[in-house]
Amino acid sequence: MSDHLRASETLKIHVDQDKCQGHARCKALAPELFELDDYGNAHETGDGTVPTALIDQAWLAKSNCPENAIVIDEA
Amino acid sequence: MSERPPVTDWVNDFDHTDPRWTENPYPIWDELRSASPLVHTDRFLGCYMPTTFAAVKEISYDTDHFSSRRIIVRNVRSASPPPAPPITSDPPEHKPAKRLLLPPFTPDAVAKLEPRVRAICNELIDAFIEDDGCDAATAYTKHIPVKTICHMLGIPEDDSDIFIRWIHEILELGINDDAILMKAVFEMSTYFAGHIASRKQKPTDDLITTLMNARDDKGQPLSDAHVLGSLRLLLIAGIDTTWSAIGAALWHLATHPADRDRLLAEPELMPTAIEEFLRAYSPVTMAREVMKETSIAGCPVKPGNMVLLSFPAANRDPSVFPKADRVMIDRKGNPHVAFGLGIHRCVGSNLARMEMTVAIEEWLKRIASFRLDPSQKVRWSEGTVRGPRSLPLLFGKPS
Question: What is d(CA B209, CA B154) in angstroms, rounded to the nearest whole number?
Answer without folding.
Answer: 9
